[in-house]
């Protein structure tokens, strides 16, 4: 069965390592996975006042989420937590109340930093929120990319073979996991 995955980058920076990482996941996805990178930087700040007449960006976002079978969430780490743009996207995807677009979707949670913890704190904080949203994150293998500046070339291509092998292993595990959940 072909799976359609929404990939969200928690970094809006033009040369974002997080975005480079989801592009590497996209490039290395198996044939039975389609990865759609969904931009989230134009979503308005979550505001319940907007729910009566949803902005077009939110309506479009909801339509995209209705077409997916799973989620790839990539986050940098800010102050031991995940990025605010990921939080905003998760909130909009779960609103209005009772219309949670994330529910019962399998997910891959990954993170990267130019430092040595690989967004460990951010990923674990993000996983706490996913529990409430009824999202089923893949537990193993975990994916923490450290020293990211050394892993990509000037064109944004992944050059580290160990990271490439881990991405392939994550996809392999995710396909098995997602197929089990769909039964």
Description of the structure:
- Strands 1, 2, 3, 4, 5 and 6 form a 6-stranded parallel β-sheet that branches.
- 37% of the residues lie in helices and 16% in strands.
- By secondary structure, it is of the alpha/beta class.
- The protein has a single domain, classed as 3-Layer(aba) Sandwich (Rossmann fold), CATH 3.40.50.360.
- Helix 3 links the parallel strand 3 and strand 4.
- The protein contains 5 helices and 6 strands; from the N terminus they run βαβαβαβαββα.
- The protein is globular, with a radius of gyration of 16 Å.
- 37% of the residues are buried.
- Mean residue pLDDT: 95
Largest sheet: 6 strands, parallel
Cα distance spanning the termini: 12 Å
What does the radius of gyration come to?
Answer: 16 Å
Count of individual beta strands: 6
CATH architecture: 3-Layer(aba) Sandwich
**Can you tell me the CATH superfamily?**
Flavodoxin domain
How large a portion of the residues is in β-strands, by DSSP E? 15-25%
How would you concisely characterize the structure shown here?
With 183 residues, the chain is α/β, with parallel strands linked by helices. The chain is built from five helices and six strands; from the N terminus they run βαβαβαβαββα.
Q: Helices, strands, pairings?
A:
Layout: E1 3-9, H1 17-27, E2 33-37, H2 56-66, E3 70-75, H3 84-93, E4 106-112, H4 120-132, E5 136-137, E6 144-145, H5 161-182
Parallel strand pairs: 1-2, 1-3, 3-4, 4-5, 4-6
Feature tags:
5 helices; 16% strand; 6 strands; six-stranded parallel beta sheet; 183 residues; alpha/beta; Rossmann fold
């Amino acid at each position: 069965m072909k799976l359609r995955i929404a990939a969200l980058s928690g970094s809006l920076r033009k040369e974002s390592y997080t975005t480079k990482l989801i592009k590497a996941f996209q490039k290395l996805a198996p044939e039975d996975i389609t990865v759609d990178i969904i931009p989230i930087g134009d979503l308005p700040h979550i505001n319940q006042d907007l729910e009566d007449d949803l902005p077009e960006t939110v309506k479009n976002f909801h339509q995209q989420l209705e077409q997916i079978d799973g989620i790839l969430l990539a986050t940098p780490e800010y102050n031991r937590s995940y990025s605010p743009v990921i939080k905003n996207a998760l909130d909009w995807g779960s609103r209005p109340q009772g219309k949670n677009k994330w529910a019962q979707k399998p997910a891959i949670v990954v993170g990267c930093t130019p430092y040595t913890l690989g967004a460990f704190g951010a990923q674990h904080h993000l996983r706490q929120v996913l529990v409430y949203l009824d999202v089923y994150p893949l537990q193993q293998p975990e994916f923490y990319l450290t020293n990211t500046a050394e892993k990509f070339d000037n064109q944004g291509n992944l050059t580290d073979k160990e990271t490439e092998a881990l991405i392939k292993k994550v996809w392999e595990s995710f396909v098995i996991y997602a197929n089990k959940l769909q039964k």
